[in-house]
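A quick word before the example. In earlier lectures we treated sequence and structure as two separate objects. From today on, think of them as two lines of the same record. Here is SanA-like protein written that way.
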Amino acid sequence: MRSLLLRYIKRFLMSLGALMLLATLLFIAGNFWVVASTTRYIDDHFAECRPTDVAIVFGTSNWTRSGFRNPHFNARMRTSARLIADQRVSHLLISGDNRTQAYNEPRAMWRDLYRRGVPADQLTMDFAGFSTYDTLVRARDVFQLNEALLVTQSWHLPRAVFIGRALGMEVTGCVAEEGPAAGEWRLKVREWAARVATLGDLYIWGREPYFLGSPEPIELRDVDSGVSKASRSSLNIDIKHFITRLVSSPE
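And the structure line, produced from the sequence above:
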């Protein structure tokens, strides 16, 4: 009886070990697939970032949990403002989390970019970018984008570009300027797991975005006249009042 029990335990441990080995191999293979298949679409230096009409800027908190300014937020905003200033892109879709009134990533991004000199008519906020996947599905289906430049950190771009291209979009990545940040290794470890989960979202369980909504095509600035099509519509009536409230309201 004892030998039979030991035999079952041994088989169980061997099966468990085999499953763990298989999971590890799938984890490594998934990460390798995502990174290797997107490398040629990602530009590590600002001067190499490929011009396009619209850049999608991924949201993150502008403050860290310890109460300091988030260097990743600043890097994304600084790079995005430079893309506009250098006329590499003509519009920014700023997408982030806004699940509660107290936490609003797109509004914080809008303020920062406006203070950096980006005109209001070159900014569109997406308040339902609850995840990288949601942002890109909404960019395609709601904001009607087939092509875009993605702006975020180097460790985030492979997954973002992979999702965008899997959705049929012609996307490339522009690495947001950055320096070493405390605790960044945690984000990178989490990103390794997120890449594998993304494969499941795309190819296994067919994930749907948290909120989609009706189409809202982005109106691009008219290069010849220097104003946007939207600014010539009735939407321009309250824009000065809107900007004043948005910039002056507390963070």
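Notice the following. The longest strand covers residues 147-152. We will return to this example when we discuss secondary structure assignment.
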